[in-house]
Protein backbone atom coordinates (compact mmCIF):
# COMPACT_ATOMS: atom_id res chain seq x y z
CA UNK A 1 0.00 0.00 0.00
CA UNK A 2 1.31 3.46 -0.83
CA UNK A 3 1.69 5.23 2.54
CA UNK A 4 1.04 8.60 0.94
CA UNK A 5 -2.48 7.66 -0.06
CA UNK A 6 -3.38 5.26 2.71
CA UNK A 7 -7.10 5.20 3.50
CA UNK A 8 -8.09 8.21 5.55
CA UNK A 9 -8.49 7.73 9.26
CA UNK A 10 -11.44 9.53 10.77
CA UNK A 11 -9.04 12.13 12.13
CA UNK A 12 -11.11 12.40 15.29
CA UNK A 13 -9.08 12.63 18.44
CA UNK A 14 -5.77 13.33 16.69
CA UNK A 15 -4.26 16.80 16.86
CA UNK A 16 -4.60 18.90 13.74
CA UNK A 17 -1.42 19.34 11.70
CA UNK A 18 -0.26 22.88 10.92
CA UNK A 19 0.97 23.36 7.37
CA UNK A 20 2.59 26.76 6.86
CA UNK A 21 1.83 28.50 3.57
CA UNK A 22 4.92 30.40 2.43
CA UNK A 23 3.32 32.44 -0.39
CA UNK A 24 3.68 35.72 1.46
CA UNK A 25 7.38 35.17 2.17
CA UNK A 26 7.88 34.85 -1.59
CA UNK A 27 5.70 37.92 -2.22
CA UNK A 28 8.03 40.09 -0.12
CA UNK A 29 11.15 38.44 -1.56
CA UNK A 30 9.96 39.26 -5.09
CA UNK A 31 10.03 43.03 -4.49
CA UNK A 32 13.87 43.06 -4.75
CA UNK A 33 16.50 40.90 -6.45
CA UNK A 34 18.32 40.03 -3.23
CA UNK A 35 16.75 36.69 -2.39
CA UNK A 36 15.53 37.87 1.02
CA UNK A 37 13.47 36.77 2.79
CA UNK A 38 14.43 33.29 1.67
CA UNK A 39 11.55 30.88 1.14
CA UNK A 40 13.67 27.81 1.88
CA UNK A 41 15.15 29.38 5.03
CA UNK A 42 11.64 30.24 6.17
CA UNK A 43 10.65 26.61 5.61
CA UNK A 44 13.57 25.39 7.70
CA UNK A 45 12.76 27.79 10.55
CA UNK A 46 9.05 26.96 10.72
CA UNK A 47 9.77 23.23 10.60
CA UNK A 48 12.43 23.54 13.28
CA UNK A 49 9.81 25.35 15.36
CA UNK A 50 7.35 22.46 15.02
CA UNK A 51 5.18 23.02 11.95
CA UNK A 52 4.09 19.73 10.41
CA UNK A 53 3.84 20.74 6.78
CA UNK A 54 4.73 23.24 4.08
CA UNK A 55 2.12 24.61 1.66
CA UNK A 56 2.66 26.68 -1.46
CA UNK A 57 0.21 27.95 -4.05
CA UNK A 58 2.26 28.71 -7.15
CA UNK A 59 -0.06 30.93 -9.16
CA UNK A 60 0.44 31.06 -12.94
CA UNK A 61 1.45 34.75 -12.77
CA UNK A 62 4.25 33.88 -10.29
CA UNK A 63 3.36 36.90 -8.16
CA UNK A 64 4.71 35.05 -5.13
CA UNK A 65 5.82 31.40 -5.28
CA UNK A 66 7.82 30.76 -8.46
CA UNK A 67 8.59 27.46 -10.16
CA UNK A 68 12.11 27.40 -8.71
CA UNK A 69 10.66 27.75 -5.18
CA UNK A 70 8.48 24.68 -5.71
CA UNK A 71 11.51 22.64 -6.75
CA UNK A 72 13.88 24.03 -4.10
CA UNK A 73 11.35 23.29 -1.35
CA UNK A 74 10.87 19.77 -2.69
CA UNK A 75 14.62 19.24 -2.59
CA UNK A 76 14.93 20.68 0.93
CA UNK A 77 12.13 18.51 2.28
CA UNK A 78 13.43 15.39 0.56
CA UNK A 79 16.93 15.98 1.92
CA UNK A 80 16.37 17.34 5.43
CA UNK A 81 12.74 16.73 6.35
CA UNK A 82 11.65 13.48 4.69
CA UNK A 83 8.63 12.98 6.96
CA UNK A 84 7.23 16.47 6.50
CA UNK A 85 4.18 16.84 4.28
CA UNK A 86 4.56 18.98 1.16
CA UNK A 87 1.23 20.36 -0.05
CA UNK A 88 1.02 22.13 -3.40
CA UNK A 89 -2.17 24.02 -4.18
CA UNK A 90 -3.44 25.25 -7.50
CA UNK A 91 -5.74 24.80 -10.43
CA UNK A 92 -5.11 21.44 -12.14
CA UNK A 93 -6.40 22.92 -15.42
CA UNK A 94 -3.69 25.61 -15.30
CA UNK A 95 -0.22 24.93 -13.88
CA UNK A 96 -0.71 22.54 -10.95
CA UNK A 97 -0.35 19.25 -12.81
CA UNK A 98 3.11 20.17 -14.14
CA UNK A 99 4.29 20.52 -10.54
CA UNK A 100 2.50 17.37 -9.43
CA UNK A 101 4.15 15.33 -12.20
CA UNK A 102 7.61 16.78 -11.60
CA UNK A 103 7.68 16.95 -7.81
CA UNK A 104 5.15 14.37 -6.60
CA UNK A 105 4.36 16.17 -3.35
CA UNK A 106 2.57 14.33 -0.56
CA UNK A 107 -0.63 16.25 -1.26
CA UNK A 108 -2.06 18.27 -4.14
CA UNK A 109 -4.93 20.60 -3.29
CA UNK A 110 -7.04 21.32 -6.34
CA UNK A 111 -8.37 24.90 -6.24
CA UNK A 112 -10.71 26.30 -8.93
CA UNK A 113 -9.07 29.71 -9.21
CA UNK A 114 -9.12 31.79 -12.37
CA UNK A 115 -5.83 32.97 -13.88
CA UNK A 116 -4.70 36.11 -12.06
CA UNK A 117 -7.26 35.73 -9.29
CA UNK A 118 -6.71 38.11 -6.33
CA UNK A 119 -6.94 35.22 -3.86
CA UNK A 120 -8.93 31.98 -3.66
CA UNK A 121 -12.58 32.73 -3.02
CA UNK A 122 -14.67 29.62 -3.78
CA UNK A 123 -14.54 25.86 -3.94
CA UNK A 124 -15.35 23.39 -6.72
CA UNK A 125 -18.92 23.11 -7.96
CA UNK A 126 -19.93 19.51 -7.41
CA UNK A 127 -21.37 17.54 -9.08
CA UNK A 128 -20.95 19.91 -12.08
CA UNK A 129 -17.12 19.79 -12.08
CA UNK A 130 -16.84 16.04 -11.44
CA UNK A 131 -16.46 14.83 -15.01
CA UNK A 132 -13.45 17.00 -15.81
CA UNK A 133 -11.86 16.45 -12.40
CA UNK A 134 -12.00 12.64 -12.37
CA UNK A 135 -9.12 11.94 -14.81
CA UNK A 136 -6.81 14.43 -13.10
CA UNK A 137 -7.63 13.10 -9.66
CA UNK A 138 -6.95 9.57 -10.90
CA UNK A 139 -3.65 10.58 -12.49
CA UNK A 140 -2.52 12.41 -9.36
CA UNK A 141 -3.37 9.49 -7.08
CA UNK A 142 -1.62 7.09 -9.45
CA UNK A 143 1.53 9.17 -8.94
CA UNK A 144 1.23 8.50 -5.19
CA UNK A 145 -0.02 12.00 -4.42
CA UNK A 146 -2.99 12.52 -2.11
CA UNK A 147 -5.74 14.70 -3.60
CA UNK A 148 -7.65 17.28 -1.61
CA UNK A 149 -10.43 19.34 -3.20
CA UNK A 150 -10.96 22.93 -2.08
CA UNK A 151 -14.65 23.09 -1.17
CA UNK A 152 -17.25 25.43 0.22
CA UNK A 153 -18.86 23.97 3.36
CA UNK A 154 -21.81 22.32 1.62
CA UNK A 155 -22.60 18.94 3.22
CA UNK A 156 -24.37 17.51 0.14
CA UNK A 157 -21.30 18.15 -2.02
CA UNK A 158 -19.06 15.90 0.07
CA UNK A 159 -20.28 12.62 -1.35
CA UNK A 160 -19.61 13.96 -4.85
CA UNK A 161 -16.03 14.78 -3.82
CA UNK A 162 -15.70 11.17 -2.73
CA UNK A 163 -17.26 9.91 -5.97
CA UNK A 164 -14.75 11.99 -7.91
CA UNK A 165 -11.99 10.00 -6.18
CA UNK A 166 -10.63 12.62 -3.80
CA UNK A 167 -8.92 11.60 -0.56
CA UNK A 168 -9.71 14.78 1.32
CA UNK A 169 -11.51 18.06 1.08
CA UNK A 170 -10.14 21.41 2.20
CA UNK A 171 -12.98 23.46 3.64
CA UNK A 172 -12.71 27.07 2.48
CA UNK A 173 -12.86 29.00 5.75
CA UNK A 174 -13.12 32.64 4.70
CA UNK A 175 -16.83 32.74 5.60
CA UNK A 176 -15.95 31.48 9.10
CA UNK A 177 -13.08 33.96 9.50
CA UNK A 178 -15.30 36.88 8.56
CA UNK A 179 -18.07 35.69 10.91
CA UNK A 180 -15.72 35.06 13.84
CA UNK A 181 -16.48 37.30 16.82
CA UNK A 182 -19.87 38.34 15.40
CA UNK A 183 -23.35 37.05 16.28
CA UNK A 184 -23.15 34.86 13.15
CA UNK A 185 -20.19 32.82 14.41
CA UNK A 186 -22.15 29.93 15.97
CA UNK A 187 -24.41 29.47 12.96
CA UNK A 188 -21.52 29.55 10.49
CA UNK A 189 -19.54 27.10 12.62
CA UNK A 190 -22.52 24.73 12.69
CA UNK A 191 -22.48 24.75 8.88
CA UNK A 192 -18.77 23.85 8.83
CA UNK A 193 -19.34 21.12 11.41
CA UNK A 194 -22.13 19.64 9.24
CA UNK A 195 -19.88 19.72 6.16
CA UNK A 196 -17.04 18.03 8.05
CA UNK A 197 -19.41 15.36 9.41
CA UNK A 198 -20.67 14.70 5.90
CA UNK A 199 -17.10 14.40 4.59
CA UNK A 200 -16.04 12.06 7.38
CA UNK A 201 -19.18 9.95 6.87
CA UNK A 202 -18.21 9.16 3.26
CA UNK A 203 -14.57 8.45 4.19
CA UNK A 204 -12.95 11.74 3.21
CA UNK A 205 -10.27 13.38 5.29
CA UNK A 206 -10.87 17.01 6.22
CA UNK A 207 -8.45 19.90 5.84
CA UNK A 208 -9.30 23.57 6.26
CA UNK A 209 -7.85 26.88 5.27
CA UNK A 210 -8.11 30.50 4.23
CA UNK A 211 -7.93 33.44 6.61
CA UNK A 212 -7.45 31.21 9.63
CA UNK A 213 -5.46 32.97 12.32
CA UNK A 214 -4.17 32.76 15.89
CA UNK A 215 -7.41 34.45 17.00
CA UNK A 216 -9.99 32.34 15.18
CA UNK A 217 -8.30 28.93 14.93
CA UNK A 218 -9.11 27.35 18.30
CA UNK A 219 -12.85 28.09 18.09
CA UNK A 220 -12.90 26.47 14.65
CA UNK A 221 -11.10 23.31 15.78
CA UNK A 222 -13.28 22.99 18.87
CA UNK A 223 -16.46 23.10 16.79
CA UNK A 224 -15.53 21.25 13.61
CA UNK A 225 -14.78 17.53 13.99
CA UNK A 226 -11.88 15.63 12.52
CA UNK A 227 -9.83 18.43 10.95
CA UNK A 228 -6.57 16.72 10.00
CA UNK A 229 -4.71 19.74 8.69
CA UNK A 230 -4.96 23.50 8.53
CA UNK A 231 -2.87 25.45 6.04
CA UNK A 232 -2.24 29.01 7.16
CA UNK A 233 -0.26 31.70 5.41
CA UNK A 234 -1.40 35.29 5.37
CA UNK A 235 -2.13 35.79 9.09
CA UNK A 236 0.73 33.57 10.21
CA UNK A 237 3.35 35.45 8.19
CA UNK A 238 1.86 38.76 9.39
CA UNK A 239 2.12 37.49 12.98
CA UNK A 240 5.69 36.37 12.40
CA UNK A 241 6.56 39.92 11.35
CA UNK A 242 4.86 41.55 14.31
CA UNK A 243 6.17 39.07 16.86
CA UNK A 244 9.64 39.50 15.41
CA UNK A 245 9.89 43.34 15.34
CA UNK A 246 11.12 43.79 18.92
CA UNK A 247 13.98 41.28 18.69
CA UNK A 248 14.93 42.67 15.30
CA UNK A 249 15.10 46.26 16.55
CA UNK A 250 17.25 45.16 19.50
CA UNK A 251 19.60 43.46 17.06
CA UNK A 252 19.88 46.54 14.82
CA UNK A 253 20.53 48.72 17.89
CA UNK A 254 23.33 46.33 18.89
CA UNK A 255 24.82 46.80 15.40
CA UNK A 256 24.63 50.58 15.69
CA UNK A 257 26.12 50.52 19.18
CA UNK A 258 28.96 48.31 17.92
CA UNK A 259 29.92 51.01 15.43
CA UNK A 260 30.57 53.47 18.28
CA UNK A 261 32.65 51.15 20.43
CA UNK A 262 36.30 52.15 20.48
C1 LIG B 1 -6.50 27.86 -1.46
C2 LIG B 1 -6.25 28.93 -0.51
O1 LIG B 1 -7.09 29.37 0.22
C3 LIG B 1 -4.89 29.52 -0.43
O2 LIG B 1 -4.03 29.05 -1.39
C4 LIG B 1 -4.92 30.97 -0.50
O3 LIG B 1 -5.70 31.34 -1.58
C5 LIG B 1 -3.57 31.58 -0.58
O4 LIG B 1 -3.32 32.16 -1.82
P1 LIG B 1 -2.76 33.64 -1.88
O5 LIG B 1 -1.59 33.69 -0.93
O6 LIG B 1 -2.35 33.80 -3.30
O7 LIG B 1 -3.86 34.56 -1.45
N1 LIG C 1 -5.12 26.61 1.85
C1 LIG C 1 -5.11 27.85 2.53
C2 LIG C 1 -3.75 28.36 2.67
O1 LIG C 1 -2.80 27.70 2.28
C3 LIG C 1 -3.46 29.65 3.30
O2 LIG C 1 -4.48 30.56 3.20
P1 LIG C 1 -4.27 31.95 3.98
O3 LIG C 1 -3.94 31.64 5.42
O4 LIG C 1 -3.10 32.65 3.32
O5 LIG C 1 -5.56 32.68 3.83
Topology summary:
Layout: E1 17-21, H1 23-29, H2 39-48, E2 53-56, H3 67-80, E3 85-90, H4 96-103, E4 107-110, H5 130-142, E5 146-151, H6 158-163, E6 168-172, H7 174-179, H8 185-201, E7 205-209, H9 217-223, E8 227-232, H10 234-259
Parallel strand pairs: 1-2, 1-8, 2-3, 3-4, 4-5, 5-6, 6-7, 7-8
Describe the structure.
This protein is globular. The chain has a single domain (17-259), classed as Aldolase class I (TIM Barrel, Alpha-Beta Barrel), CATH 3.20.20.70. Residues 1-7 have low confidence and may be disordered. Strand 2 (53-56), helix 3 (67-80) and strand 3 form a beta-alpha-beta unit. The longest helix is centred in the C-terminal third of the chain and has 26 residues, at 234-259. The chain has an 8-stranded parallel barrel with strand order 1-2-3-4-5-6-7-8, surrounded by 6 helices. The chain has helices at 23-29, 39-48, 67-80, 96-103, 130-142, 158-163, 174-179, 185-201, 217-223, 234-259; strands at 17-21, 53-56, 85-90, 107-110, 146-151, 168-172, 205-209, 227-232. It has 10 helices and 8 strands. The chain is of the alpha/beta class and 262 residues long. Helix 2 (39-48) runs parallel beside helix 3. The structure holds 1-deoxy-D-xylulose-5-phosphate and the ligand NCC(=O)COP(=O)(O)O. The ligand NCC(=O)COP(=O)(O)O is lined by residues 21, 55, 89, 170, 209-212, 231-235. 1-deoxy-D-xylulose-5-phosphate binds next to loops. Catalyzes the complicated ring closure reaction between the two acyclic compounds 1-deoxy-D-xylulose-5-phosphate (DXP) and 3-amino-2-oxopropyl phosphate (1-amino-acetone-3-phosphate or AAP) to form pyridoxine 5'-phosphate (PNP) and inorganic phosphate. The active site is at 57 (proton acceptor), 89 (proton acceptor), 210 (proton donor). InterPro entries: Aldolase_TIM, PyrdxlP_synth_PdxJ, Pyridoxine-5'_phos_synth. One of its GO terms (molecular function) is pyridoxine 5'-phosphate synthase activity. Pathway: Cofactor biosynthesis; pyridoxine 5'-phosphate biosynthesis; pyridoxine 5'-phosphate from D-erythrose 4-phosphate: step 5/5.
Amino acid sequence: MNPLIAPEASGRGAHTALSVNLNKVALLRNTRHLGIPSVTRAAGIVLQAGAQGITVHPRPDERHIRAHDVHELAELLRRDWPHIEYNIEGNPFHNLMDFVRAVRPHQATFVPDAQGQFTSDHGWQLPQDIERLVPLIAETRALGVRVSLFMDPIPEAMRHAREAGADRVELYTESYASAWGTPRQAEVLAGFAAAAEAALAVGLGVNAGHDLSRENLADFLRAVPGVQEVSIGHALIADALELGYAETIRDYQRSIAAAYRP
